Amino acid sequence: MMVDTVIIGGGIAGLSLASELADRRGSGAGIMLVEAEADLAHHTSSRSAQQLIPSYGPEPVLELTRLTIPDLVEPTHAVPAPLAWPSPFVVTGSLADVAAETVPGLRTLSSAELVEYCPELADNPERYRAAIIDDSAVRTNATALVEWHRQRAERAGVRIITGATVTAARPAGDGAWALTAGGDDLTARTVVNAAGAWADHVAGLFGAVPQSLQPLRRTAALVSLSQPLGPTHPMVEDATSGWYYRPDADGAMISWGEAEPSPACDAQPRPSAIDELIETVQRETTMRITGVRKAWTGLRTETPSDVPVCGWDPRAGNLLWLAGQGGYGFQTSSALARAATDLLVDGRIGNWLSAESAAALQPRPATS
Ligand SMILES: Cc1cc2nc3c(=O)[nH]c(=O)nc-3n(C[C@H](O)[C@H](O)[C@H](O)COP(=O)(O)OP(=O)(O)OC[C@H]3O[C@@H](n4cnc5c(N)ncnc54)[C@H](O)[C@@H]3O)c2cc1C
Question: Which SUPFAM superfamilies match (predicted)?
Answer without folding.
Answer: FAD/NAD(P)-binding domain (SSF51905)
